[in-house]
Amino acid sequence: MKMLLSLITLLSAALLASTAPPTCYSRVLSLSKEITESFKELQTSKAVDSCVQMLPRLYLDIHNYCVLAKLREFVAYPSCDRVLEVSDLKEKARSLYTIMISYCRRDLVFLTEDCNALESPILPPLEPSIIES
Predict the structure, then answer these.
(1) How far apart are CA 56 and CA 47, in angstroms?
(2) Cα–Cα distance between 101 and 105 in angstroms, integer?
(3) Global pTM?
(4) Strand partners, 112
(5) Would you say 117 and 65 are in contact if contact means Cβ atoms under 8 Å apart?
(6) How far apart are CA 58 and CA 80, in angstroms?
(7) Which of helix, strand or coil describes residue 112?
(8) DSSP alpha helices (H): ranges in 1-133?
(9) 33 versus 78: which is more confidently predicted?
(10) What is the pLDDT of residues 66-103, one digit of tens each?
């Protein structure tokens, strides 16, 4: 009986550990990836306004201190407010900026302050299966 109770306790602890709430870092990381992917999709979409091509480049690396300036620049960009996808993307960028400067201010560690890295990121090489298709 004692063994069964121990097993149930252990399984309950494992279940609770896997359902822990996201940390500030994980939330910022996932939101930055979501924004970057949405921006890439917006840039490659054929059915968007021509002003989308003029938007500032939006590659986000949350470990780079310059990402804060990059987010401010993107949110403040005056054109394309009439395009719904751009407005949604600006709202997500504003949320990420707010999370980074207020809620997660003490939890984030910036490893670099290289603003040029956000302008021309070094992307990982494509897998051979992607190139062949």
Answers:
(1) 19
(2) 5
(3) 0.70
(4) 64
(5) no
(6) 15
(7) strand
(8) 2-18, 24-44, 67-76, 84-98, 115-119, 128-132
(9) 33
(10) 899 999 999 998 877 788 888 899 999 999 999 998 88
Angle value at C-alpha 7, between 5 and 12, nearest 5 degrees: 95
Q: Rounded CA gap, 126 and 9, in Å?
A: 45
Distances in Å between the alpha carbon of 12 and those of 5, 15, 18, 119?
Answer: 11, 5, 10, 47
Backbone angles phi, psi at 8, to 5 degrees: -65, -40
Strand partners, 64: 112
Dump the DSSP string for 20-56.
PPPPHHHHHHHHHHHHHHHHHHHHH-SSS-GGGGGSP
At 27, the amino acid letter reads R
Mean pLDDT of the chain: 79
